[in-house]
Amino acid sequence: MMGTKERRFAPLANPSLDDLVPAEHFYRHLERTLDLTFVRDLVRDRYAAGGRPSVDPVVFFKLQLVMFFEGLRSERQLMQVVADRLSLRWYLGYDLGEPLPDHSSLTRVRDRYGLTVFRRFFDEVVAQCQTAGLVWGGELYIDATKVAANASVDSVLPRFAVEAHVGGLFAAGDDPDDRGDGPDG
Question: Containing H/E element for 77?
């Protein structure tokens, strides 16, 4: 006899995300390993003394990490995935009934921080990973896949010119007035 699955959902009886997310889940390990308390000091100068409360900077950077780890390409998609995954809500500290930040707020926060803040965040995270023994730099792998390039020989530049250009991009990001608004400031 063929069975039929009926869609009936009983109300949840006081569930806790702590109970629902497995103890050895990746995001629990990340929470134990990576200390993001430095973030508030990193971005303090980007906020006014008064006004509406913003998205917690630690939550914002956790969302950026989730976006990376989950291979997501937009903040809209990120917030859809977070709304659907218990482990991500747990990692961010948002309970089941608590509203999540809007994706458009994340865009404004990212623009406010600019390249300098992201670079300092990355440097600190890498340093913590090295201290924890997660990054050691002792191995190097090279992918020798041949890919047909659509490039002109005239566009080839000496290495020092490319390094100077990239260095200039990061130097522009070191300006405290740089808020990530693009090349025109």
Answer: helix 75-84
Tell me the whole-structure pTM to 2 decimals. 0.69
Burial, 57: exposed, middle or buried (Cβ in 10 Å; 0-12, 13-18, 19+)?
Answer: buried
CB 43 within 8 A of CB 117: yes
Q: What is the largest CA-CA distance in the chain?
A: 74
Nearest to 127 by CA among 117, 115, 137: 137
66-77 burial, b for 16+ CB within 10 Å, e for fewer? bbeeeebeebee
pLDDT 10s digits, 59-111? 999 999 999 999 999 999 999 999 999 999 999 999 988 999 999 999 999 99
Distance CA 152, CA 139 (A): 33
| Three-state secondary-structure class, residue 135 | coil
Measured between alpha carbons, how far is 130 from 136 in angstroms, rounded to an integer? Answer: 6
Looking at residue 137, its pLDDT comes to 67
Contact predicate 89/81, CB 8 Å: no
Name all contacts of 67-73 with Cβ < 8 Å and 24+ positions apart: 69/26
Residue 151's pLDDT band, with cuts at 50, 70 and 90, is low
Helices 57-69 and 103-131 pack at an angle, to 10 degrees, of 80
